[in-house]
């Protein structure tokens, strides 16, 4: 084992440890330090000198020994030294009761005879303050507000030996902020409070109160916004600064008056046409009022007054939007209710009345402002006719003809009713329709029309309308005459009445038919000795025809739908009178007379043939009238032959006839009025 070490010195700088110094021992690798207090001891192994024993009790006397140690073992303890640990540090409790002071207190320390406390700004500026005391508390005053200070304290014993020290950093509470300003936002009903930053303040609290209402705003900046203020109120604003030491004193209260509230009990009256009166109730903190009146065409006017009413001019048919604001130094009140007032609509202009018929008038007008509905009223005759519509036109029907009316157009709106001061317009209806009483025929193509007059100062026009055209006659009385009407035509006859007020509806039409026209051309052709064919051109308006041939010897007649007719029982060689009656579908007739007609001469009888030679024959006949000449014709396959006797003879000879043929022999009278007759009987000769 190594030699016993010798302690040079042992001392205590901390209340929980003792430091020992000794001379090194050759061959020792470690040293064991022992601190013994009565029966308890604490050992600590160290490498070399000096060494410290820790975990000791403050202000306690210890017996200190040292042993050297190596692989061979431990030496005997060195001669001991008695050392007492220093006093424990006082545990401080620090706070800043005001912005310029710091209070320090602590609990009593065992074996302490007194205490030493020093204070200095943590940034090193200024001088250090130090106080010695036997008490357990003290106060440093006249300090800088909001400043961080470092505080160090220790206790000493009766020998004046200082113990452990205790260090604590403490900031003084801040000073009250200065230069507090309040900016009020009237539109948002909020205020921005600002101030000069104060030294050492970490946060600020703004208090806004009015009566029992209290609002707070906390911030770390040098301003704060206080929302949700009430209009028409006076607030008091103060600011308090805070840090970890506490709070400053509140600043002196600053008065804040908000904008007045929007006026209420607003009433709008049209005390007379064209004038609006707007009134309202006064409001708290309102110094003056401004009324804005905006019409629906965008034009806006305003009125500035310290009273509670304003007058405005107005026009018909406009909607006015009215808002009232109160003002003071803080600004304009919030927007209250916006009222609208609609004046009565204007009277319609550009009034026009056009008659569609004698009992119907169409009234049109220009649209007017503010009108939702129009009422047209026609007063006259036996009553009133009404028409309501949203359009700018109305048709009044069932009016009495030939009657004066006062027509007025009123405009209506849902908001304000009707315009009652619109002027009427005088309108007279067209004449009443006449009633035709009689149509009579005064002569060929002349018709007289009579009607019942039922209007005053009216001119009547009668019209005959047909495919042939139009014919008119005019009269102010109760009849007129239609002249030169064409034959065979159908007409519709009606009458109208005219006056300065207009034209009536036409009367009921009366049908009129003129007698059919006579055919212009007639042709007679004798087909046989007793049958004649008569043909004629069409007679306009005729449906059937009656044709008559009449002579002293008798009459021949036919009734037909056609334009021709075969008449039998005609006596040959007789003069006839020719007449035709054209008959219309309704039975009207026209008698037509034409040039006389003579039937052809009678065919001879008793025709006989005698052979004269091999190539000749003689033809005999018996004539009904010896003054008429006759001719004989032979017609065969080998040739045609004829002969004509001298006047007064009743035979003639035909010679050089080829033999061996069959001939047809016809004897017919010869006249100078036309060709030979072809219907006389034939004789066959071989």
UniProtKB/TrEMBL annotation:
Gene3D superfamilies: Immunoglobulins (2.60.40.10). Residues 1-88, 89-175, 176-261, 262-346, 430-517 form the Fibronectin type-III domain. InterPro entries: FN3_dom, FN3_sf, Ig-like_fold. It comes from the Eukaryota. It holds the Pfam family fn3. SUPFAM superfamilies: Fibronectin type III. This is FNDC7 protein. The lineage of its organism: Eukaryota, Metazoa, Chordata, Craniata, Vertebrata.
